[in-house]
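Tutorial, part two.
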Amino acid sequence: MIEGLRILIVTPAYLPDVTGNSITAHRLYKGLTDKGVEVEVVRSAECGIWNKKSFIPHLVHALHALKGGVPAKETADRLGVPFVVTVTGTDFNIDLMQHCSSGVSAVLDRAAVIIVYSELAKKGLLTKSPFLEGKVRVIRPSVDIGRPKGVGGAPPKGFNFLLPSGIRSVKDPLFAVRPLELLRREYPSINLAIVGPVLDESEWKRLSEAMEGRDWISYRKVAHEEMSDIYQAADVVLNTSLSEGLSNAVIEAMYFGKAVMASDCDGNRAVISDGVDGLLYMKGDEGDFMQKARSLIPDADFREGLGRAAIDKVARDYSLAAEIEGHLRLYGEILGKPVSRIKKK
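Running the prediction step on this input gives:
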């Protein structure tokens, strides 16, 4: 057990909100506290007023370089402690790569270490910002989700596609509607369930309008503890994102042995080997989406083979123990001593 180490995690969202950052923050909280680390989690919006004198962290850990990193940097500066930042997706692929955000650049420059989820992400970041060489580290994420409880009721009759996604434009939740509607001419039993929080009201309006008159599409907001049963009811799990860091939902679906079909963006390509443990379709290409989906619908053996390979990959490469141990080693390096030797005050 590790006693005395105190970590402050700054995240754009936290449970009960079901977003990638909130799930990651809670997974780190549980994994670190299980090791005896004292952990506080604070939302970015509350970070500026956070002043808990009974908890002075040794280190501040931000999720998302812009939304978490900017307030985390300010807090770390105020407390006089180091901070690290996990680059989670849009902060790298959009804020930095497309818009050259000065806020993101300042955070990355000040951070003691920048954590990314894959070697592919590391290569992309260093291509854009070679001056960061030496401070970028890869720590793969993991899965921390309960087994199905069988409380979700019977799934809808038919062939069930699941899209676990926050409703915002970068996730492109509307993309799957048209090609699946065309496929329904061949397979009229197709259903599409979309689950996740509404994060963009304009995107929600577009989705709501698209769902009108299409009773084969459903949407609901769910708690994370419901997701095990929701994954279990799916035949194929989709990811339609225009940009990803490395999707918690994709890894969770693979953990449950589901056939995953995802857009061929960097984050999905980092975890899915096309045709081996999932399928990748060309981003924005409805024809390729239909072709890949058509290969899955009638072929249960193919889906099950992808699912078995997915289970093996998650068990091998995305373990919770490895993720937490990687963070503990990193914290120790930054603080200049093994975390097991940090004395409790």
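The radius of gyration is 20 Å. In part three we will examine how such features are distributed along the chain.
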